[in-house]
Amino acid sequence: MSTLRVLHLGAPESLDPLAEAAETLTAERTFSIVSVETAAEAHEAYESQPFECLVVEPHAAVDVIDFIASIHETDPKLPILLFTHPDSVDLIGKALAAGATDYVPKTDAGTDYELLATRIETSISYAGEQNTADPWRQSTSAISQLYAVTNQSELSFEEKLDRALEVGAAELGYPVAYATRVEDRNLEILSVAGDHEGIEIGMTSELSENYCKLVVDNAEPVGINNAEAHDALAELSTYSELGLQCYVGAPIMLEDEVFGSLCFAGTEPRDPQLIEAQKLTVKTLAQWVGYELERSRREEELRRQIDRLEEFTNVVSHDLRNPLNVAQGRLELAQAECDSSHLETVVDAMDRMEDIIEDTLTLAREGQTVDDKEPVEIAELLDNCWDVIESEDAELRVVDEFTVHGDRNRLSHIFENLFRNAIEHSTPPVTIRVGLLNVMYTSTRADTGGTFGFFVEDDGPGVPEGRRESVFDAGETTRKDGTGFGLSIVKQIAEAHGWEVELTESFDGGARFEFTNVR
What's the sign of the alpha-carbon dihedral 137, 138, 140, 144? Predict the structure, then answer.
């Protein structure tokens, strides 16, 4: 009886089920498994004794990609299996590109470790060989290429889908691949790779006449190695009209519902074990299609929102402002002809309307994500903002000098609005301070992740705790002549930079705005 020596990097509790699964795998081989938790321990174990396979199970304490790359560089022939959840598409792609031999899907099913044990034995059997018929190598190649497609951000979803089908068909060895959408129990073909006269983009058919019915109804991958051998399958038009003998399909999920299916098919029967192995790869491809579809829809909805926002700003900027300008002109003529206290009220109302228009436009424009950022010296920016405020009853103290990356013009709106807010809501004189956050004294304790925080605070009356969230709502104000947009603009611009902002209390009892996740 031979022994397979396996090094397992992962959580220690994963060792027992793997060992138990290995015992039931075969009577001819036993597994000798060494399990460690850190990359350093794995390197030490690897250098101290020979291993025939390495299993990497990602967890927070390990840089998986760096570890796999270092081991692969040292021993390119050592089988390295990544044992992780199928939805970790990005991690899987990077691991395969770094040198992992294959990945094994980790799900909630009870057969995970049996499959892992099988893959360990298979990978060792194929170590050092180049066998293109090996389904595990097909899986590795297909997913690795899929990751390359994912990184091509300039491609549309439709273009990525076409390439994913081409990759899958080529690597898995099927003459035709297609993606479908299901609606009202009808099947529509969205994309096709390969050549089959009966399968074309835009074609529709009843779901009940397709192999895809099994995929959609069960929301699970389906493999058919020889449809002719099964009476129920042979009656379906997929076989009787299209002549598809073998088929592997998996559900495309969108918002936890089956959107359609990803299918690979051929006109000749196939080995059932090969079909069964390829179901895992097709499932991964289908999951990726679902992720890309969901992202594409979010981007499309965002574009629609931006279009509506631009339409709104045009209406406010032109269609509303033009009649207001006419009214202001007529008001000036009326003031020249007569002296009435009622006209002063009209002037105040129109000035307020002008302020609301300006703040509304600012709110609409400044909330968009900041793409082009530049280093901005805060001390210089604050000086410029303070010059705009022009208040003799307020003092600005810059506690710390620091640099942020952002849009200088939009950042000016943050500080100008905060300065005005402090001055207008305080009894003079008021002192405003700006400085870096000390993480020991901030109201949140999140890991910085390479970012930092700063504060803007005053010694005014502050904001009651119950109103500290609502003050950021558009239109929220306690002043009769205020528009209520100032702090909403502050929040929008901060979030457009990827920052977070929170209102709390300063040491003097005034308002303290804390900005975190700043770069």
Answer: positive
